[in-house]
Design goal:
Largest sheet: 4 strands, antiparallel
Number of helices: 10
Distance between the termini: 21 Å
Number of domains: 1
Order of helices and strands: HHHEHHHHEHHEEHEEE
Strand order of the largest sheet: 1-5-6-7
Oligomer: single chain
Radius of gyration: 19 Å
Helix content: 40-55%
Shape: globular
Number of strands: 7
Amino acid sequence: MTLVDLRSPNRLSALKNQGSRKVASMPAEFRSLEESRMYLELLVRRLPHLMASINAESESLNFLKLDTIRYIPKWYTEERDRYLAEHEKWHEAFTLFLSRTQPSKTNSLGAKALKLQYLSSYFAAAGIRTSEEPWSDTRRFMPMLREIISLVKQILRDPRTEREEGMFSIAMKVICPLFGVAWRCPHRALQKEAIGLLLSSRRREGLWDSIFAGRLTQWIMELEDENSLDVEGEYVPDCVRSAGFDILTFDAQTRRMRVRCLLPEWNFLEWKIRETVITW
């Protein structure tokens, strides 16, 4: 499951430090996939509370709940980096475990899912700019974004996953990682591939619907294409991309949603708001 936490900064500060002693005792090498999963779930649960507490003190565009123009205040940079270092420590212990213990055919899918969750969580936090940066530099995460797409395709090609097509899963698997690439990736070809994977089959994971996620990110991409007509090359600069989006109304029965998106004008001094209704 994923969340946008609206609790008070004081409450968030308490939640982001839950399990600190457990994280400090994380082994240098995991003994099983189950142990790997337990530590990763703890890290992934702590990180949204940290990011929400940072957002409460970061300049924002106010109405945007998902706002890429926000930044990490200077006094939070060190703390964010510490949380990212915990993720990196987990990855080292996980990689060492896999190098010495070949997962069985049954467990190989779980190992890929854990790696995918790690990459998505890391990118979500590391991709937010610091107060010293005028724009996010998402291009530096391209190796990570490519690996996310590669893992998603491996998981979707697995016969066990294919049998789940059209089924509901309470666990987050591929939709949220794909959404991150489809929304934030600066490389147009890879972004389109992520959108195509979302739209290729209807999947439901937690509160996420793959068709809705695909159509939302496709609309945002089309707006950004209009905003960057004079930009050449396979990458679109972060400075002309959307600042974020809001879900204004949502009707699950009719599958209709009104959303709005904020885009920079070319002079970067003003913003333009675009709205549409998405059905799925």
